[in-house]
Write a structure and sequence with these properties.
three-stranded antiparallel sheet, 8 helices, 43% helix, elongated, two-stranded antiparallel ribbon
Length: 240
């Protein structure tokens, strides 16, 4: 907004704007999908209802078992739909529709489960409930990021889609032979103990301070410029 002529994007090649007729056609094709469903999007709909129904169906017909070839599969799905629309008391209503007397225990248990679900739904709609969900989401993201740092690209999101069949073939490297330790003669070297401070524990962390001690000599340097920390990736520490 201050200087659009000199502005450069930080995350785009050479800092230039994205352009091109092919890109415009691709974006138009994506926008057409939203335009065709604008009446649904205008109501600020969510896919959580679909995911909830999928979870209920999965509880009635687990994916670990091949129910789709069974004659009872339609009944499993129908039971899931009835539970989604009516609640856990649908079993008692099925008994009533078939002129059977629903057991008292079944009615109490179904009402208890419906009450529990309603309490959860009411709690997640509150300000505290939404804040707790955001905190849990942040914790999961931190855990995944820490796992990716330790295990490498194996735990990255959608790793199977981003890697081709050729790239996914990883050859086991040859065993590493431990180097032979050679004792250095006394007085031929000067031991230096150093430490660094970084902005985080991730591989994208930036170094903010370097300190070293050698005998009576000490060294400490903050890496800053114009009161702002300079981006100095940890991977470049060896160059220092």
């Amino acid at each position: 907004m201050k200087d659009p002529a000199q502005y450069k994007h930080k995350s785009l090649p050479y800092g230039k704007d994205l352009c091109g007729e092919d890109l415009r056609k691709d974006l138009d094709s994506i926008l057409n999908l939203y335009i065709a469903n604008s009446s649904d999007l205008a109501r600020l709909g969510s896919s959580q209802g679909n995911e909830s129904l999928n979870m209920v169906i999965a509880s009635k017909a687990p994916k670990a078992k091949h129910y789709s070839s069974s004659n009872s599969f339609n009944m499993h799905v129908a039971a899931a739909v009835a539970q989604k629309n009516i609640g856990h008391t649908y079993i008692s209503k099925v008994h009533e529709e078939n002129l059977l007397s629903p057991s008292r225990t079944c009615q109490i248990y179904g009402a208890k489960l419906d009450k529990k679900v309603q309490e959860v739904n009411d709690r997640v709609k509150t300000k505290e409930g939404k804040l707790k969900r955001l905190q849990q989401k942040e914790k999961r993201a931190q855990k995944i990021a820490a796992t990716e740092v330790r295990e490498g690209s194996t735990y990255e999101k959608d790793i199977g889609l981003s890697m081709s069949s050729e790239k996914s073939r990883v050859e086991i490297p040859e065993p590493i032979v431990a180097p032979e330790l050679v004792s250095l003669p006394s007085g031929s070297y000067t031991p230096v103990i150093f430490d660094i401070e970084t902005t985080s524990a991730y591989s994208t962390a930036e170094i903010t301070q370097i300190a070293a001690v050698s005998g009576d000599s000490q060294f400490s340097q903050y890496i800053c410029q114009h009161s702002q920390f300079v981006a100095l990736p940890v991977k470049k520490l060896a160059l220092l």
